[in-house]
Amino acid sequence: MSTLTQSDAGADGDTKDAIQRRIIAAIARFFLSTVVVFLFAIVQGFRFGFLQRDYALLALGSVVSVIGAFAFVSGLLPYFFTLYLIAYRGLWRLLHVFRTFSLAPCLSAVTFTIIGFIAIRHLQTITDLTRSARQFQDV
């Protein structure tokens, strides 16, 4: 009877370790995608000025979304920021590129769409794994 309990405890420990590894991997990927956006915003902000375009919003949004995702203070802010990346910086700007085609804005729009999808996918993974880890602890 005691060996059955020890093997169950071992399986629970393996499950916890697997969940922790997946959460850490998702956090690292989300963090990396927001760092890319932040670096882009800082470089372009110094080149063209932060008030000229929305570079200040990109820089501030990436910082706030990382803080919100890790501190669990404001859970919807990272989702709104990634929605901004996908919808406005990506798809909406891609529609403008179709009127007057230029390669640089097209690549920028596609890049922001891809980065936004990567960020929101890993943010959703973090949310799902955290929720399942809390359920696992309650049981």
What's the helix and strand layout?
Layout: H1 2-48, H2 55-71, H3 76-99, H4 103-138
Quick structural summary:
By secondary structure, the protein is an all-alpha fold. The protein is 89% helix and 0% strand.
Polypeptide structure, described:
The protein is mostly helical. The protein has one domain. The chain has 4 helices and no strands. It has helices spanning 2-48, 55-71, 76-99, 103-138. The longest helix is centred in the N-terminal third of the chain and has 47 residues, at 2-48. The chain is elongated. The model is unreliable at 1-9 (pLDDT under 50).
Mean pLDDT: 83
The total tally of domains equals: 1
Helix/strand-derived category reads mainly alpha
From the alpha-carbon coordinates, what is the Rg to the nearest angstrom?
A: 20 Å
What are the defining features of this structure?
single chain, 139 residues, mainly alpha, 4 helices
